[in-house]
Structure formats: C-alpha cells, structure tokens
Write a structure and sequence with these properties.
Pfam families: DUF1835 (PF08874), DUF3658 (PF12395). About 40% of the residues lie in helices and about 15% in strands. It is α/β, with parallel strands linked by helices. The chain folds into 2 domains: about 160 residues, no CATH class; about 45 residues, no CATH class.
C-alpha cells in the first residue's frame, strides 16, 4: 500500500496503478491533539465541512490504514521537503509502532528539469509534481529510525504550537502570528478576506492552506 499526505498526488499514483491511501492531515497547522479530539476548532474550519464530518473523514482514513497495517502489508510512504510530509511521516511511524510491516520511504525532490531543455522548475508540494518523477530516492526505514521519528513526533505534540514550519531543513514549532505579516502585506481596501487569503497563499504556496489564512484573518478582525 502506498501512503501520501497529498490528495492530488494520490490521484496520480492511483492512475498509475498503485494501491494508494491519501491522508491529507494538514499537520503543519492546528493543535496536533485534534487527531483524537472531534471538538477541536480545526474541524470547524477545515475544508468548509462541519466539525463532525471533517473529524469522521479523518478517522475513517486512519481506520483504513490500521486495517492495512494489521495485514502485515508493506507500506511505501511518499514524501517531499514540506512540513506536512515530514510530520505525516513521523505520525505514520508512531502509528506503526513495533509492527513488523516493512516501511519504505520514497523522497520526491521539489525541483527538477523544466518542460523545455535548459530550464529548471520548482514545486511547492507533491500535489504539483507530475508523474513519472525522476531522481527519487527510495530506502527502507529501520525500526530504530521509526522509533526516533516517534520521539520527534511526541516532542512536537508537547510543544502545543499552532503552526509548524521547515526552516533551513529543520521542522520547528512557531507561534500563530508567524504568517501575520504576509497577510497584512496582501490587505487592500478592495479585497475581501477570501481574496487576501488567496493572494497570501499564492505568495507562499508551500505554507498553510487557504482556509487557514481565512481563519487567521477572522481571528485578527
């Protein structure tokens, strides 16, 4: 079973014949304890769903993954250099625990040759990458590394931050105000909150999803 934390990339893998499970957990934003808390405010804002629907959808996917783990199937997790993917990988290692399943990690670079010779391009996340992908790295994850990833996840949960970002390749917890300057820079008298959020996301597509910027604007106002 292939695992990815990006729905668009999962659709590509499925079209290429992979058995794949998408887990769009959006772990770079919100309280990480929400994964077991249906009352967390995150579920009210995410994707426009009701709190109950969002939480239930997440739980259904996790239950599906647990069933796959119980079969002993090999898991292949696709990741890139984003906060969501790094956190998702740590979370997956915790869920696996000491289970005997083989875990293989495929790392996809977010830069590569452009559509025309001599050009170079970058992508914000796996959802922008188009298969087939060149220069991926594939490796099996030992139980000791899975345990270390679990420790890293536990530390991030204890930090109880509202946001997590990759800075110079390191995943760090940051305060909820971290992106406020970007939001202020996009504010115009003629722009609605949705337009401000969209403009902010376009300026930093590897950051939080648009709905998170809309939530933050509501809090600021």
């Amino acid at each position: 079973m292939d695992i990815t934390f990006n729905t668009a990339f999962a659709e590509q893998l499925q079209a290429a014949g992979h058995a794949v499970l998408a887990l769009p957990l959006a772990l770079q934003v919100g309280n990480l304890e929400r994964l077991t808390d249906p009352q967390d405010a995150f579920w009210t804002w995410q994707g426009g769903e009701s709190a109950g629907q969002g939480f239930q959808r997440s739980q259904d996917r996790v239950r599906q993954l647990k069933k796959v783990i119980a079969t002993g199937d090999t898991l292949t997790v696709w990741v890139s250099a984003t906060a969501d993917d790094q956190l998702g990988y740590w979370w997956l290692c915790v869920l696996l625990g000491a289970a005997p399943n083989r875990l293989t990690q495929v790392t996809v670079p977010l830069m590569g040759p452009g559509p025309t010779p001599g050009t170079w391009q970058t992508w914000a996340h796996l959802g922008e990458v188009v298969l087939p992908v060149e220069r991926t790295s594939r490796r099996d994850i030992a139980l000791t590394e899975r345990t270390a990833a679990g420790v890293a996840w536990s530390g991030m949960v204890r930090a109880a931050s509202a946001l997590r970002v990759l800075l110079n390749g390191n995943l760090v917890a940051v305060p909820v105000t971290f992106y406020d300057n970007l939001l202020h820079a996009q504010q115009r008298p003629s722009r609605s909150a949705q337009q401000i959020a969209e403009a902010t996301w376009l300026s930093l597509p590897s950051g939080p999803p648009i709905w998170w910027y809309e939530w933050r604007l509501a809090m600021l106002r």
